């Protein structure tokens, strides 16, 4: 069954040569959603809602999406290879049928049966042409799959490279933030310890001099400055990390949307392609049946009696049969054809040479030795 020209399959397929790839993919995605949504009240989950994770630097959701895209490329490659081999098989079968129709003889057959036999060879040659055409179509479809897969690969590669860079930047800033966090916490602990030490020294006036207290205060001030610097660096690292996280989140949303459009367009494309494969086979079957019907119509005109009469008319030798040879009694003087030569006289024999009855001339005598 060939797809209707009013269906989204046909319209979008015809737009393939006019639209930009990304627009084409979006158009395919919209057509897919419009053609496949049977219940408008049913809400479908999208990629952008289903592939997040709590791990700040986790990539499991993205990697699963990427694997799906890569698996889709492999499927396209498998379909391409299948179509190539299928087209090659049809072309080889076509050549075999052409060779068969040329090598078959049978010219001796005449009449209606002969016409049927000759038409069978003609239709076999036509069937070979049908398979050659279908083989060429399979080869062209394989080329279209290769082109489609390559365009999808180039499109997804742009976002794959960008996400790889964003993931790397987010991970690096996360590690820096963790380092500054550890430094900040360490400086805070140093500050707390220094403050406690100063309090203990101030409470033990009998064992601590004013000079020692001044040193502890100076050291405390340095710890506070180091803590404040670590705090500033820690906050700056958090701000940078949050800015990159937002970039990454936006990029992830775009990638989810693009990957879903790519996947939907791939499913749509391959589904339509496989449909067209069945159309090629269906058309070939119809053409084969037409050729077979043509032979059947010719054979229906084959009448056994007519073929027999035709052979008789062209090859008959006569209707008179040889008459019966009657018995001739030698003693009654009747000569049979076999006794003609045995009733020769001595005049008919010259030195052992027979003279044919009724001959007026003597045969040449053989030379003496």
From TrEMBL:
<dbReference type="InterPro" id="IPR027267">
    <property type="entry name" value="AH/BAR_dom_sf"/>
</dbReference>
<feature type="domain" description="F-BAR">
    <location>
        <begin position="45"/>
        <end position="307"/>
    </location>
</feature>
<dbReference type="Pfam" id="PF00611">
    <property type="entry name" value="FCH"/>
</dbReference>
<dbReference type="InterPro" id="IPR031160">
    <property type="entry name" value="F_BAR_dom"/>
</dbReference>
<protein>
    <recommendedName>
        <fullName>F-BAR domain-containing protein</fullName>
    </recommendedName>
</protein>
<keyword id="KW-0175">Coiled coil</keyword>
<feature type="coiled-coil region">
    <location>
        <begin position="213"/>
        <end position="244"/>
    </location>
</feature>
<dbReference type="InterPro" id="IPR001060">
    <property type="entry name" value="FCH_dom"/>
</dbReference>
